[in-house]
Design brief:
Helices cover 28% and strands 30% of the residues. It is α+β, with helices and mostly antiparallel strands and 293 residues long. The chain has a six-stranded mixed β-sheet. The longest helix has 15 residues, at 164-178. The radius of gyration is 24 Å and the shape is elongated.
């Protein structure tokens, strides 16, 4: 099996056909790696934009891609044909650094073909998540590609970051550093109808306190010191994307601010809870606020 690392650069612009803002791919880079972590081949294609021919200042400053460079570029469909042929018929897994590139590729497929399915995508991995897990980095926050390379001691002297091919080369170098055969195979996702439903599902913050999706039992707190169930004071208030209320422990005579967030994800409702102690003001603390984590 081969591993295909893909990176994209795109230009944003308004499109009547898309009924809004559209991220048009202007450059694709890819690296083909085998199971022995040997680089077999590389791929690059420039794509001439048709939606917004003027590159945004952000894209120009970030990538140094110029309109002149894209003038002789291929079409999106031409790139897809070339990329599919380059990948070959051997079983493969497509890797991207986070799902953003994958979603943009699906967006372009919808725009140019009317279907979001990617013809050559049979197996996929969000390599950013896998790499962070292997590196022992908390996955609750996304680690940038350049930072990951820096932490792993990968030199970037000959690379132009934010260019599709060089970014895919850096991603492949990270793959060579963190690859573990068993854990890697376990993280591969087969691409089927369920996969597309999952990848396009948009997480929603539940704001309605009466929603049947909310479990009231999740809105209770126990005292961190004595373990006793605490009493809520006042009504729940929704602010900063979560339900908030004050709680007190009669036994310990302490007060806390409780925060509960309900997020509807594809797999179901995810609950995040946080409790911060309310520190009484004294002569020493009155002058400066005390930060409580």
């Amino acid at each position: 099996m081969n591993y295909i690392v893909i990176d994209l650069e795109w230009n944003g612009g308004w499109s009547k056909k898309a009924h809004g803002y559209f991220n048009e791919i202007i450059e694709v880079g890819a690296v083909k790696v085998d199971e022995q972590m040997r680089v077999l081949d590389v791929f690059r294609a420039a794509i001439k934009p048709v939606v917004s021919k003027k590159l945004s200042n952000i894209v120009t400053s970030l990538t140094n891609i110029t309109a002149e460079e894209l003038e002789d570029g291929t079409t999106f469909m031409g790139m897809m044909c070339r990329l599919s042929k380059w990948m070959g018929s051997d079983p493969s897994v497509v890797l991207t650094w986070s799902t953003t590139d994958l979603l943009v590729l699906m967006e372009n497929c919808r725009f140019f073909t009317g279907r979001q399915e990617i013809p050559f995508l049979m197996n996929y991995m969000d390599f950013q998540v896998y790499a962070q897990q292997r590196m022992g980095v908390d996955t609750s926050q996304q680690l940038g590609l350049a930072k990951a390379g820096e932490l792993l001691g990968i030199p970037e002297d000959d690379m132009s970051l934010h260019r599709a091919l060089d970014d895919s080369k850096l991603t492949a170098a990270i793959l060579q550093k963190v690859y573990d055969r068993d854990s890697f195979k376990a993280a591969i996702m087969p691409v089927d109808d369920e996969f597309y439903k999952r990848i396009t599902f948009k997480t929603v913050i539940i704001k309605d306190l009466d929603s049947p999706l909310i479990k009231r039992s999740e809105m209770c707190f126990n005292c961190p010191d004595c373990g006793q169930n605490m009493k809520r004071k006042g009504s729940w208030r929704f602010r900063s994307r979560a339900f908030c209320a004050e709680f007190s422990c009669r036994r310990c005579e302490k007060k806390y601010n409780g925060r509960v967030q309900f997020r509807l994800k594809y797999e179901g409702v995810e609950t995040k809870k946080k409790l911060n102690e309310i520190v009484p003001k004294t002569e020493e603390t009155a002058e400066e606020p005390v930060a409580v984590s």
